[in-house]
Design goal:
By secondary structure, the protein is mostly helical. It is 43% helix and 4% strand. α5 packs across α9. It is globular and about 50 Å long. The relative contact order is 0.17.
């Protein structure tokens, strides 16, 4: 038997996308990733976007940041999941799905594993507040992107709160607006992800088709902020309390002494969701 999946934003908690492609998973792998999506699973609250109420929280052309702020306030008041819980899920995914980690299963399994890997950094990022304004950083950044008339990943189909929160967590391209890109909030959110990549390197590819590693994501993210903002990510230094972290005349933001192709990331975090397919697993 094979599993026909029109499937799986199990990892993302979203159902806005579908696929006509067939993805074949082993029975054991399918059973495990399906169990992760169940509301009765004690780990359900560990998925950031699911716990926030996506996809039901938003709709097309939704710019209601007050609604998002309320959801974030409620969510961030709950206890965070532990490192041990996240490590357990990733270990079980690799145990149950070892033979399934191939390019053909990127949309289903690859997305699931990547978003579980990113969850601890996502939790910290979406709960981060700007101490000066006492507002949530991702909401500040989303308001700025909306005010510029900019769609997440330049894709009008992502013009909703779900698209925006993924796009700014972290923001990975200045898009011609360096001042907005280099805000303290964006720098701090990016630093959260950079530290996660450094301290918790992924033991599996974050994109099966591209064999993308967490170290590559960190390299590209660091390049963007060093070249545009003259700051070094991956440190314990807070962007809200800068201490001259980088010499503005330092040219080390260029790789090999020249501009890097990293200026246009092949893989973005909002793109993880955009590339995924929506959940519904059927046995035939």
């Amino acid at each position: 038997m094979k599993l026909l999946s029109t499937v799986a934003l199990i990892a993302l908690g979203a159902g806005a996308f579908s696929s006509t492609a067939e993805a074949v998973l082993s029975a054991g792998c399918n059973t495990y990733i399906t169990s992760l999506s169940q509301a009765t699973n004690s780990l359900a609250k560990c998925r950031v976007y699911t716990a926030l109420g996506f996809p039901g929280l938003t709709h097309t052309n939704d710019h209601d940041t007050d609604k998002l702020q309320k959801a974030l306030t409620d969510y961030c008041a709950t206890p965070a999941c532990t490192k041990e819980q996240y490590a357990g899920v990733l270990k079980d995914l690799q145990t149950n799905c070892a033979a399934d980690m191939v390019a053909e299963n990127q949309d289903i399994l690859g997305t699931t594993m990547t978003m579980w890997y990113l969850s601890p950094a996502q939790r910290e990022a979406v709960c981060l507040k700007n101490p000066t304004t006492n507002t949530t950083c991702v909401v500040e950044s989303i308001k700025d992107v909306i005010a510029r008339g900019q769609f997440p990943n330049d894709n009008k189909n992502e013009d909703d709160l779900y698209g925006y929160i993924q796009y700014v967590s972290p923001l990975v391209s200045a898009k011609g607006n360096t001042t907005a890109f280099c805000s303290q909030c964006n720098q701090e959110v990016a630093n959260i992800f950079s530290n996660h990549y450094i301290k918790n390197p992924s033991s599996f590819p974050l994109n099966f088709a591209q064999q993308l590693s967490s170290s590559k994501l960190n390299e590209d993210l660091q390049y963007q902020y060093k070249s545009a903002c003259k700051v070094t990510l991956g440190t314990d230094q807070s962007a809200f309390k800068p201490t001259n972290p980088t010499n503005p005349n330092d040219n080390s933001g260029s790789k090999d002494g020249k501009n890097s192709g990293a200026q246009s990331l092949a893989f973005s975090f909002g793109g993880v969701a955009a590339a995924a397919v929506a959940v519904a697993v059927a046995m035939i």
